[in-house]
Amino acid sequence: MIIPLDRRGEETVILSRLREGKRIDHFDTVRLRKDGTRLEISLTISPVRDTAGEIIGASKIARDISARKRIERELSESEQRFRTLADALETQVQFRTQELRRRKTEILQRSDQLRELSGRLMSTQDEERRRIARDLHDSAGQNLAALAMTVARIEDEATRNPTRLSQTVKEIRDLIEGLSQEIRTTSYLLHPPMLDEFGLRSALGCYLEGLKKRSGLSIELNIPADFGRLAPKVELAIFRLVQECLTNIHRHSGSKTAVIRIIREPDKIYAEVQDHGKGMSPERFAEVQSQGPGWASGSGECESASGRLMAN
Predict the structure, then answer these.
(1) 223, 252, 244, 257: which is closest to 307 by C-alpha?
(2) C-alpha 137 chain-centroid distance
(3) What are the backbone angles phi and psi of residue 220, rounded to the nearest 5°?
(4) Is residue 223 predicted with pLDDT exceeding 90?
(5) Domain(s) of CATH 3.30.565.10: residues in the chain
(6) Which site in 25, 34, 160, 309 is 20 to 30 Å from 185, CA atoms measured?
(7) What is the CATH number of domain 191-312?
């Protein structure tokens, strides 16, 4: 009556052990109450013997262990939740560790790139200073030397040949004008004043006018009349791009023509400088492209894009 159907096999085992005279201690099982509900109990069963030592019955003690079993189940469920949480935490820790390692690698790579860019910047600045020093020495220095010799000749001719004095003064004036022009050109190359005052379109126009005279290049500038002003840093970056590209065309490409196109969109600025020079070899082009954005792009036997910039 008190043994559930699914526990009937337990009773067979218990009786078998009792017949052998064995005691059963703390056997956890389930029994039924009068109302049919199940009750978790712990059984202690001992064989009962008569005076002759024969087993004539059994003594059973049943203790209600429902509370203990409930606590055990709660502890087991809690342990399982903590185990699941620990596994999830371990997974998150591993993921975050991998993410931190990846970011560390990126930071190290960027640090290397910054060091490389810093080295390039220093090299570029040094090259620019050498170029300026060379220009001043080759142009302004020579003009000053010629001016000094001419002034010395004035002193001599003022007493011996007054009729040539006017011609010598004219030569001095020409030398002074040339020297002044060279100084203005050098100053403009260092920082174009019209860029701050009137914007990119006017500054480029003035620069190209002087470059055409000095280099003999035929340069076409395509920039809308209503282009407007940009942020100072963006205007300077585009101006330097054009300046560097035209310098490369003049020195290296062999081209006698160049076309500059600058287009403005709501969220982008496109600047392109194109020439018809000898271009670069495929090997050199691949090497330049591998050095990342900001470098020259385009190459060919007949046409080479000396520079292309897209700024957001």
Answers:
(1) 244
(2) 42
(3) -110, 125
(4) yes
(5) 191-312
(6) 309
(7) 3.30.565.10
Instruction: Let me know: does 258 contact 219? Beta carbons within 8 Å.
Output: yes
pLDDT digits (tens, 9 = 90+) for 157-169: 666 666 666 677 7
Q: Where in the chain is the domain with CATH 3.30.450.20?
A: 5-64
SS3 annotation, 266-290 = CCCEEEEEEECCCCCCHHHHHHHHC
- Which is nearest to 273 in space by CA: 231, 230, 221? 221
What tokens were used for 42? Answer: 């712990």
Q: What is the CATH number of domain 5-64?
A: 3.30.450.20
Q: Which residues contact 1 (CB under 8 A, 6 or more apart)?
A: 32
- Residues 104-143 pLDDT 10s: 989 988 888 888 888 788 777 767 767 776 766 666 667 7
